[in-house]
Specification:
This protein is mainly β. It has one domain: glutathione-dependent formaldehyde- activating enzyme (gfa). The strands form 2 sheets. Strands 6-7-8-9-4-3-10-11 form an 8-stranded mixed beta sheet. A 3-stranded antiparallel beta sheet has the order 1-2-5, with no helix packed on it. Strand 8 and strand 9 form a beta hairpin. The chain starts with 5 loop residues before the first strand and ends with a helix. About 30% of the residues are buried. The protein binds zinc ion (2 copies). The site of one zinc ion (ZN) has 9 residues, from loops.
Length: about 150
């Protein structure tokens, strides 16, 4: 492993710091309502790594777990002090952890945006240059219907 394979990042207040090694398994933009509500913004940016490639070097995380439309659990992890969401662990991909695309130290956007998912709830003013885009996602398999507030169609 060379230094070039490592990227560091952290939350707004600086208490939580982490490091990833190697290249992401996949990365992209998500327009789903969960990402919009989690971030308070128009979209979420996820950079997914194998769990063993993420090392939290400092700080305390708080966790918020909920069941998605798929009936599977999602665990959002944020800084216990400043509330920046840093990581997510979807039960759907148990060996992977999502890292928030905006929390890497500059040059922040060192990874590419390969995928764009959940176009069904995309804001009209957002234009993303991705290789592949989906109205929902390749893994989309709902087992119940969310409240309209969470559907975004
Ligand atoms: Zn913080
Ligand atoms: Zn999403």
């Amino acid at each position: 492993m060379t230094d070039g394979d490592k990227h560091e990042g952290g939350c707004l207040c600086g208490e939580v710091r982490f490091e990833v090694s190697g290249q992401p398994e996949f990365s992209g933009v998500c327009h789903c309502r969960y990402c919009q509500l989690r971030s308070g913004s128009a979209l979420g940016v996820s950079v997914f790594f194998k769990k063993q490639n993420l090392r939290i070097t400092r700080g305390t995380l708080k966790s918020y777990k909920f069941k998605t439309e798929s009936g599977k659990e999602m665990d959002y992890q944020s800084c216990a002090t400043c509330s920046t969401t840093l990581f997510w662990e979807p039960e759907m991909v148990p060996d992977l952890v999502g890292t928030a695309g905006g929390v890497y130290d500059p040059p922040t956007f060192w990874y590419s945006c390969e995928l764009e998912v959940f176009q069904r709830s995309k804001a009209d003013f957002v234009h993303i240059d991705s290789h592949k885009s989906y109205n929902t996602s390749r893994l989309y398999a709902p087992v119940h219907t969310d409240d309209p507030r969470l559907m975004g169609e």
